Amino acid sequence: MRKLADTVRISGSAVLAVIAMLLLPALPPTVAVASAQTGEVDPAEIDRFLTDYLARTGLPGAAVALTHGDRVVHVAGYGRDSTGAAITADTPMPVASLSKSFAALAVMQLVEAGRVDLDAPVRRYLPEFGMADPRAEAITVRQLLNQTSGMSDRAFPDLKRPQAHSLAEAVDRLHGAALADEPGTDYHYHNPNYQVAARLVEMVSGRPYAEYLRERVFGPLGMDASTTVDRPRDADLPRGHIRLYGKAIAVPEIDWFVGGSHGIVTTAADLAQWLIMQNNGGRGAGGQQLVSPAAVDLMHTPPRGSRYAMGWQVDDTEPGRLYHTGSWFTYTAEQVLLPKTGYGIVVLTDMGMALESDPSIIADGLVDIARGDQPTVRRPAGIYADWGLAAATLAVAVLAGIAVARSRRWAHRQREMSLPGWLIVLRQLPYLTAVPVLAFLPGLGSFVFAGRVGGFQHVLYVFPAVLVFLAVAVVAGVTVITARAVRLWTTRPRRTDGATGSAQPSLRATPP
After folding, report:
1. Which CA distances in Å does 480 have to 43, 260, 434, 473?
2. Taking a C-beta distance cutoff of 8 angstroms, is the pair 333, 98 a contact?
3. What Cα–Cα distance (Å) separates residue 388 from each residue in 43, 76, 245?
4. Which residue in 252, 279, 475, 508 has the most C-beta neighbors within 10 A?
5. Per-residue model confidence (pLDDT) at position 19
6. 453 pLDDT exceeds 80?
7. Is the Cβ–Cβ distance between 495 and 419 less than 8 Å?
8. Are 462 and 23 a contacting pair, CB within 8 Å?
9. Could you tell me whether strands 313-314 and 93-96 are parallel, antiparallel, or unpaired per DSSP bridges?
10. Each residue of 259-269: b (16+ CB within 10 Å) or e?
11. Whether the Cβ atoms of residue 163 and residue 258 lie closer than 8 Å to each other
């Protein structure tokens, strides 16, 4: 299974086989169809697929766009947001890390203008860039865009650091960071790469990054509803959602720095214009040439030994397919290019990152439709995992209750076996297994997050059912041990003289 979110790696063993229900409640869709219907794809088939998907999975809302060559085939919205408003083709949503492809384009515009050399050190254009590692002096602009700079979450877990409020602050906080590898050697997905790239655009162009995008990218493409923000609260969006046991729960977005790397907020209608430009050699639907065809090819081509190009990834399961996923903690997105056929696809949802992302499944279905195949409607793996965890959580609670109820019998049995105290204590330690797992969960989560490092709040948003299970397991284990300790203490034998302790004959001498 291919990587379905830019921060989440799928593991087949994580999909549990416990299924508690067969169908989730349906949400009535509201469809806003923009049409340049070409006859290549039946828009009604897309509508049916999205309607069925929302009904089967409980996804609150989504917006999609499908383009072919320089034409918009279909763009629509489905479902409702957390305020109850209908989601349409013009509903603003964050695209998260899809923003990286915009930053790459901005840099390439400066390259083609002769103002930036991809293979020059970053510090030539951004003197403020520096790290607590002398090797950082050699990091090139190309390495930032290919994410081979040597920076990584392993060496600098940016999610766990104080969050910046601007691109300048984001670059400044790297002064204390080290590199994980020699620049130009290994690929590490790391948001600061693109934060530095966006700051470079500011410094070279002499204008704020948001203004540059508005004038040189959004404006020429007619993406009038698009903007970029530094913090999620700046976007003033409705609450997105997380999933718990298959149900969508509206929660506020985590307040983190998203500028440059994952801060663009836009609409499905606007992104249709973006896809056309990407599949049309850098030329927009209205004839605007943002970059040359050679620049587009370069942004779509990864370096040798890597699948990551410049804001785009090569799908290792399907040659020629390009994609990039994007994740906030309460919104997710995916864009796909099929250069061989000229199709472009984008999916936006108001559901956060999880074990498997909704946009990836929907995008796969839209790819099937574009090929003339029947799309498959299936639930994300995380829903099945949640059902399994729900069953496990209930089982732990029930077993703990039984153990507490039988604690008196257990205490008598320990007395009968005359076990030493240290052995009794040792045999209770398995009940505390969940304690270290819970304590080190953020670190363990980095294996699932493909090396990304976060804290408890981030794990709570992505895997709430895991935290519930571990919390219940910890409470259950402590409760069982406490109940047994109390029973062991209250059922201990009494001395014949009234003193407490083990039953022993009195050794006091009888007076003559």
Report:
1. 58, 50, 13, 10
2. yes
3. 36, 34, 9
4. 279
5. 32
6. no
7. no
8. no
9. unpaired
10. bbbbbbbbbbb
11. no
- The two tokens of residue 440 are 């080190």
Cα distance between residue 496 and residue 469, in whole Å: 47
CB within 8 Å of 398: residues ≥ 6 apart? none
293 CB contacts (<8 Å, ≥6 apart)?
281, 282
**Comma-separated ranges of CATH 3.40.710.10 domains in the chain:** 43-379
480: burial class by Cβ within 10 Å (0-12, 13-18, 19+)?
buried
For domain 43-379, give the CATH number: 3.40.710.10
3 state DSSP class of 478: helix
Cβ contact 33:74 at 8 Å: yes
The phi, psi pair for 308, rounded to 5°, reads -100, 120
Q: Return the HEC string of 12-57.
A: HHHCCCCCCCCCCCCCCCCCCCECCCCCCCCHHHHHHHHHHHHHHH
Q: What's the rounded Cα separation, in Å, for the pair 466 and 470?
A: 6
Query: Which range is least confidently modeled, 206-210, 312-316, 324-328?
Result: 312-316
DSSP bridge partners of 210: none
| Burial class of residue 84 (count of CB atoms within 10 Å of its CB; 0-12, 13-18, 19+) | exposed
Query: Which residue from 19, 23, 48 is spatially nearest to 33, judged by alpha carbons?
Result: 48
State which amino acid sits at residue 180: A
Section 318-347 average pLDDT? 95
Using a 10 angstrom Cβ sphere, with 0-12 exposed, 13-18 middle and 19 or more buried, the burial of residue 400 is buried
Which whole-number Å values give the CA distances from 415 to 79, 484, 485, 493, 500, in the listed order?
63, 12, 12, 9, 15
Tokens of 94: 């964050």
Query: Do 329 and 337 form a contact (C-beta atoms < 8 A)?
Result: no
Which residue did the predictor score with more confidence, 72 or 437?
72
> The whole model's pTM is what?
0.85
In a 3-state reduction of DSSP, which class is residue 283?
Answer: strand
Q: Which helix (H) or strand (E) holds 78?
A: strand 71-79
Please, which residues bridge with residue 72 across strands? 67
Cβ-based neighbours of 439, under 8 Å, separated by 6 or more: none
